[in-house]
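User: My collaborator sent over this chain with a note saying "see what the structure looks like." That's all I know about it. Can you take a look?
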Amino acid sequence: MLKKLRSRRQPRYSTHICALIAAVLLLLSVSILYLRLTSDRHTTHHHSDQLTFDPLLEEADPEDRNSSDDRIDILDDNPPDEDPNQYNDDDDVEDATGTDQINVSKYYFDHVQGVIRRVFDKRSIDQWEDYSGFDSNSETGFHNNINLGFGSDDVVLDYNVRAKLVQVKGVEDALLLTVGNRVSPLKEGWGDWFEKKSDFLRRDRMFKSNLELLNPLSNPLLLNPLSNSTGLTKADRMMQKRIINDFKKVPFIGNDNPVSKSKLESVREEDIKSETKIAERRTLDKDEIKTEFSGQIYADGKRWGYFPGLHPRLTFSNFMDAFFRKGKCSIRVFMVWNSPPWMFSVRHQRGLESLLFHHPDACVVVFSETLELNFFDGFVKDGFKVAVAMPNLDELLKDTPTLEFASVWFEWRKTKYYSTHYSELIRLAVLYKYGGIYLDSDVIVMKPLYSLTNMVGLEDESSASDINGAVMAFRKHSPFIMECLKEFYASYDDTNLRWNGADLLTRVGSKFLHGENGFKNQMELKLQPFFAFFPISRKNITRYFTQPSTDAEKAEKDALYQKIVGEALVFHFWNSLTSGLVPEPESLAARLIDQHCIRCSDML
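Assistant: Without extra context I'll predict from the sequence alone. Here is the result:
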């Protein structure tokens, strides 16, 4: 048994021999596989009938294509923007690359996007930066040996644009900004047109204010989430109301409808008898649908004002004449508003209410570039005559020395104090053309104004000559107003806030009253004492927006309140100084502002 077991024992080194044979076979198979792969790669890239396009190897050296190195690794060592071709065949090549020059492909792999991109031709870009590619003697302005057709989308092909690109000196030029007197070279030829076009679009739809985004009432967080919001656009609501309106106006005529056929026929006969009137009525209905159902009405270059019953396409002058002729008009009152609509607060509304409280039959026109034409539709529905009009400067300033301001309006509105100076010119021109009373929007009327004629007020008791134009009443074609218009044109200064307003009235008033026709001119210009129009000066107005804290202070303010109510014609609350103040309920300002309210439930 022992002999049999010994005879079956394997040789001592059989395991090692098997392992060695397996290793040899593995090395042999790997060598054969490597040779096959190398042979196939060489054959694929050297025979066009079996070529598979590889953009990463398109421009590579043939000897380098047989290398087993990864081409992407080569590109990583030589980034696309460091193209070795940009160097000359000298020692600088090795200084720049550190090795012999490698012919890198014009393509590279974008690891972020996962796509193949064309390499930038940095040599050509550098030529543009140092003007080496520009040739003033060439017909096109460039050397003929420069490749103008770049493959990259980041390099423009237009000659003129590329010529201007090299003139860009900073980020301001790249952003098309105007710094001082320097204008970005990229805006030459089209920048002026673009600015005018942009300004026209801003003026479109009644020149709505660019500050509308600051309106706190437009903040979504302040809107009532339970409000009835349909999500329809203005056009959708317009069409919806138009369809509903058609259903209301035209009854359905059927076999069972109680409307008799004879009545329908009589209606049709009446329509046929006046085809011209029908066409006119339909035209007007179309205009009304375009504006009324949209909720807001704007000036559009053909429509300058709005009041129910007046034709929507009247010129500015015709609208004003038609408005004054319509119904009763005891006095004419003018206002100007050029701030955003949302800034017309309850305290400004109180000024209009106080005027209508004393003069319910007054014709009030508010001139504005920002308000909707039906902004005061609530007062109109209550029976008052209040209209908004967009001034047409060509018609309003006609036959006055200031007509030139209509032609330079586009440049004029870019000045710093345009809004204030525009209002000051409008009030002078309106009083001269139509005659009546002008009131600032921050004026509360305390007494009827029938007695005012050819009159302005002194601003402060400390000066006997400082005139303020917050309240002005003059007859049509007043010689004093004409002198003011002449002075406005002759000495206009767009950098001085008061120079063309209160200071102008003071200068002209002093000359007018002390001129050759002094006695006659005194009938054309009457100065009211300061307390009639400005019972509280601008220096002290802010302290009267707080309620009295002591009995003595309360007694003092009560006495002043009684004096203002008894003697002053108007109360000016100087909104430029108090716009950020909320009058406390028992303050003197609150009592005066609410003195003659109509919508008294509206809170200040």
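A starting point for your reply to your collaborator: DSSP finds 26 helices and 14 strands in the chain.
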